[in-house]
Amino acid sequence: MKVVYSEKHQSHDPQTFLVRGRMTRSAEQPERADRLLAGIHAGGHTLVAPEDFGPGPRAAVHTPEYLEFLETAWARWQALPDASDEVIANVRPMTGYASYPTGIVGRAGYHMADSGTPVGQGTWNAAVWAAHSAVHAAALVAEGERVAYALCRPPGHHAYADKAGGFCFLSNTAIAAEWLTRRRRRVAVLDVDVHHGNGTQGIFYRRPDVLTVSLHADPAEFYPYFVGYAAERGEGDGLGYNLNLPLALGTADDGYLQALDIALARIRAFAADTLVVALGLDAYEGDPLKGLAITTPGFARIAQAIAGLKLPTVLVQEGGYLAPELGDNIRSFLTGFESRL
Ligand SMILES: [Zn+2]
Fold this sequence. Notes:
Blueprint: E1 2-4, E2 17-19, E3 22-24, H1 31-42, E4 46-48, H2 56-59, H3 64-78, H4 104-111, H5 123-142, E5 147-150, H6 172-181, E6 187-191, H7 198-204, E7 210-217, E8 242-247, H8 253-270, E9 274-279, H9 296-307, E10 313-317, H10 326-338
Parallel strand pairs: 1-4, 1-5, 5-10, 6-7, 6-9, 7-8, 9-10
Antiparallel strand pairs: 2-3
Helix pairs in contact: 1-10, 3-4, 5-6, 8-9, 9-10
Bound molecules: zinc ion (ZN).
């Protein structure tokens, strides 16, 4: 399988993450990609460097104000007196009404859903190349590859059109899906990350042309908390084109595969001709963020079920943190997928 990967992700190395009131090192570390790459090499896959697709694909999903914020936030923050090395929001707009502030402290609050998205000097560059990687994988599939995998870092599925959140800045999955949609593909997005794909859902929530489906740990007790519930089915023209399948915390392989059958049936009914998978591996039983309990062989079973759709498929890396088995898990998923081609 072709794997699109850029070393430019290394310029994003977030240091801070607020967990239960304690400031810790972010779980979204560059070493994640090293471990995933070890699994890719062990699986015998082919690395491809992403091309520069320009600003168009990200601008098709994100607002101009948000993109300008992300590109300039670090430099503006450094011009503040006694500023930290990373941009971290400490204010949030009220829901329902907010004016758009001119200052960088206000804009950080406006454009960040939580404190999990510290912006450092190299964050923008890494996020841009993660998005290029996702588009490159989409282009490979558009040109006839049956499946391609983008090893994106930072991840993307918690990023909204105008907000960062949960380690995510640019919505790589949504950018790939939108890029394909503009090439007349009928796209379904299937999110198997342990966390609900709230950003992807938000981006396509009022649209009937892209189906969004997410399996995830029940948000009543798990990030992103405020969305990801079964009652969220889309709005306006998009009503009926979003499916959430929240799972009890600790759900293991068999329970997961039962819910996956429901997701795959919905994708078949939608008559998608192309699939984009938001491929988090943090549903793993040993993941530091602990939500579900998928085993390493379980990822192969999940991949086989998804490959059974027989659709051209773009795999976009999302979460999956520093468990020793992270490389084994991506290898298991990709091997399982290829076994059903
Ligand atoms: Zn996740």
